[in-house]
């Protein structure tokens, strides 16, 4: 074999070892269940889903009502019930609270938190967030007479979806779900990250959840962590890095 042919052969072998089929052969989990955060819906995972499917994983994106912790956990548990196990359970932002409670299921192999809250047992979102200075972005949250929160268009572009293109920011604003304030004060009864291998994406430019909070949660959960130079919606600004960590959690 000539030297050039040898180099080509080596390159093909290297490519095959990292191809989707090769990755799939290494996976122990079968399904990824994706849980969106507050002010969002399942479309927030649109860039990550094809990457996970290409790696050989089945994917379910939950559409949670954002009415309460109980209702979001119920919706997520139904998705877990119907999915092929083992499962990687992934949550963004408020979705981290949801997977912390819903992840206490024998079908769940591991947890992935993407710029997310990870409360301990007996803690609510408010309990965790109150330990850190208020973010400037909170001033753009608007509560209606029924107790539902939304973020102003300016808040979406400046804080929530910072780092995305104007067209992407507009889409995030249009599809945002109203989030009831009662969900923020309901404590979780069990912290699944205490029992399951956990992985965390820290968004270092996040203006919704303080990056220091995210780093402190990594320590508490003894989680495997990556940092990305991203605003709050890291799965939209850095989908490859987020997908790679989810795939790692599936191995």
Largest sheet: 6 strands, parallel
What is the CATH first-level class name?
Answer: Alpha Beta
Mean pLDDT: 92
Q: Going across the biggest sheet, name each strand in turn.
A: 2-1-3-4-8-9
User: What is the tally of beta strands?
Assistant: 9
Percent of residues in helical segments?
Answer: 25-40%
CATH architecture label name: 3-Layer(aba) Sandwich
Distance between the termini: 36 Å
Could you say how many structural domains there are in total? Answer: 1
- SS element count, helices: 11
Query: What global shape is seen?
Result: globular
SSE order in H/E notation? HHEHEHEHEHEEHHEEHEHH
What is the CATH third-level topology name? Rossmann fold
The named CATH superfamily: Alpha/Beta hydrolase fold, catalytic domain
Signal peptide: 1-24
Domain AB hydrolase-1: 32-244
GO molecular function, one term: hydrolase activity
Keywords: Hydrolase, Signal
